[in-house]
Design goal:
exonuclease; two-stranded antiparallel sheet; nucleic acid binding; 3-5_Exoribonuclease; single chain; nuclease; ERI-1_3'hExo-like; alpha+beta; about 160 residues; two-stranded antiparallel ribbon; Nucleotidyltransferase, domain 5
């Protein structure tokens, strides 16, 4: 199982459907090195992660500062949820979230009437939007995914009310 080296967080105000903030929680890897492909993909380097916390500390932050155990959380696809479950179990930390998870990738495909899911960049292109920040950085990905979710939920509200 791959190590989680960054967690992107972007709370959404459920009433106004607006993104509130974005945050990157960096995690120092224990079993692997940051180089090559990972650095190219994420821009994260060993130097950036030198003072990062542990996975356990990151989970504690999610629970204490974001009330992760009692909130719905969302991600693009199911990969992140499975990673949190697996890494949490492997390290004896547990799963930091409650039982409610929303797969925005599947929701987006369903909203389009498609059986084929696409990546975040493809969804932004489909919506005629430009992604913000650096693709594959946790905070920027969370920010961009939250934008897609907010737009979908606004459309749903408009259609239902």
């Amino acid at each position: 199982m791959s190590e989680i080296i960054e967690i992107g967080v972007c709370p959404v105000d459920a009433e106004s459907l607006t993104r509130m903030e974005k945050r990157s929680i960096l995690i120092k890897p224990v079993r692997s090195r940051i180089c090559g492909f990972r650095t190219t993909l994420t821009t994260l380097t060993t130097e950036l992660l030198t003072d990062a916390g542990t996975f356990a500390q990151a989970c504690k932050t999610l629970k204490s500062e974001y009330h992760a155990r009692s909130r719905l959380w969302a991600s693009w696809g199911d990969y992140d949820r499975r990673q949190f479950e697996g890494v949490g179990k492997e390290l004896g930390v547990g799963y930091p979230f409650g039982t409610s998870h929303l797969n925005v990738k599947s929701l987006f495909a369903t909203a389009l009437g498609s059986t084929r899911e696409m990546g975040v960049a493809g969804a932004f292109e489909r919506l005629g939007l430009t992604m913000e920040g650096t693709h594959h950085r946790g905070d920027d990905d969370a920010w961009n995914i939250a934008e897609i979710l907010c737009r979908l939920l606004r459309l749903m509200r408009e259609g239902l009310m």
